[in-house]
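Here comes a specimen:
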Amino acid sequence: MNLVSFNPLRTLGIPGITYIKPDHSFKEMNTLKEADCLLFPETWQTSFLAYGVKKPIFPSIETIQLGFSKIEMTRALMTICPENVPYTEILANTESNRVSVLETFPFPFVAKEARNSMGRGVFLIQSEQDFLDYAEKVDVLYIQEYLENEDKDLRVVVVGDEIITAYWRMGSSGAFLHNVSQGGDICFDFIPQEALDLVAKVSKELNINHAGFDVLFSNGKAYILEFNVLFGNQGIKERGISVESKIYDYLLRTVVPPYPTSPIAPLKGIS
């Protein structure tokens, strides 16, 4: 295969790779047109690569565009699995909407920035002043109900057309954030099949093929909080899994016409 990557760190070791800086796309247009697949473009590149160059993109254009903004991501999730999304309001940051949020959401509640990852830009709002401080920083109010949980959430990793691993991220007692980058621990035991089935369904319906899904259980029910396109790999490495090999195997099966498709396969036998 003749592959072009715009992100060498994400494709290290994949054979047949030519690396091109995103800013050099138009200088290297002939190389792009000769490629079998274009890997890890930046969001601003996706439209002209997909509709102009007309080459397969990995991750999929849906993955990249929905993953770029928590707002668009949440709206997509609310469309296909509203019962598995925390109650959320996304509002223009006006004085009347600030008042409405304070009247609607009891403390504590969660506020987020539209674009961020690894636990950054997520705030536990415990007072009116906390909320006003948050509102001064953002253009759009992204507000979610706070869900009681057991100081852990689940990371489910999708690469290509399969779930390659899943693990709990364990926070300290009373911790709000469970991200490994924020000090959370990793546990591979007792992964609920319900969560794997939910992520498999969502990935298939939205055509998400490279993402780490964050799933929280509250009162026995699974909720998808978000997914990250450029996810951390510490938990994956602990399993001895090569994401690059999974990507390459998937491309070998899918970038050659007639582009066969496979359902997302939930992991079996995890306990």
